[in-house]
Amino acid sequence: MRLLIRLMRPHQWIKNGFVFVGLVFGHAWEDAGLVAEVLALFAAFCLVSSAVYVMNDVADRDADRLHPAKRFRPLAQGEIGVSRALALCVALALAGLALAAVVSLPALLIAAAYFGLNFAYSAGLKHVAILDVFMISGGFMLRILAGTAGVGITPSKWLLLCGLMLTLFLGFGKRRAELLALTGNGNSNGAAGQRAALEGYSRALLDRLIMVSVAGATIGYALYTVDAETIALHGTDRLILTVPFVLYGLFRYLQVVYTKGGGGDPAWELLHDPHLIAATAGWLGATGWVLAG
After folding, report:
1. C-alpha span between 46 and 29 (Å, rounded)
2. What is the pTM assigned to this prediction?
3. CA atoms within 13 A on the CB side of 27
4. pLDDT 10s digits, 55-104
5. Into how many domains does the chain fold?
């Protein structure tokens, strides 16, 4: 059971918090029915995303044995058989899709699209540089759409843009950390030996992609806070007061990537770095205070 839970990677469930974006910024948290539906979708995406992680581990088990950190995963070490892992993957996926179906048909279609996107990613598209990160970002965008269109909330175009740029930033930061880990440890097989897409990247290219995406995320969120529709929806123009917390969090993450060699696991960084925890807590507190009037 311990090994199966490790395969599910529950610490990564924090990423499914993107489904709550519509509930918060759609000013819908006072609707108990909508809150229950979004909570159900959060649980559904936790199950489906765990199924995806298991599927990826099955597909990548040989390559993971060459990675300095991933070689300790249960499948890479042979602690769990492939058949048992696949059975767990199917069970998690079916349970998650069934839970999404209880919420609505659009929610089911979005959850199914998320699983299909990740299946295509594992089947080979993860080997195409830049497209691989866009597919990861697409998974986050589907989470946002599940928590908005999946429960009847109209998604904000500014928030969708901000979410896209933020997840591209995290994705390119992850690729930079992987490239640095493999090329900086004397791996004779090179970066491409562990992940073919890394052959299409260089540190200089990733640095530029990171700068573009983090700038886009910052500008997108700032423009959202001062947009006339946003002010009309929430009845306040003070959401801009939350921008400093976003800036600090993004700048701290850049520091983690460039001075500490981090970024390989964004969820781990968010849960363990005190500065990122403080920035997130400050942003949540300030956002709740402003939106609650």
Report:
1. 21
2. 0.86
3. 14
4. 888 877 777 677 666 777 777 777 888 888 889 999 999 999 999 999 99
5. 2
CB 103 within 8 A of CB 151: yes
Name every residue whose Cβ is closer than 8 Å to that of residue 229 and which is 6 or more positions away in sequence.
156
Structural domain that includes position 221: 156-293
Pull the structure tokens for residue 110.
Answer: 């979005």
Q: Which long-range contacts (CB under 8 A, 24 or more apart) does 201-209 make?
A: 201/129, 201/175, 201/176, 203/176, 203/179, 206/172, 206/175, 206/176, 206/179, 207/176, 209/130, 209/168, 209/172
**CB distance 50 to 16 below 8 Å:** no
pLDDT tens-digit series, residues 228-243: 988 998 889 999 999 9
Which among 129, 155, 181 is the end of a domain? Answer: 155
What's at 137, amino acid-wise? S
CB proximity list for 176: less than 8 A, separation 6 or greater: 201, 203, 206, 207, 210, 257, 263
Q: In this structure, what are the phi and psi dihedrals at residue 276, rounded to the nearest 5 degrees?
A: -70, -35
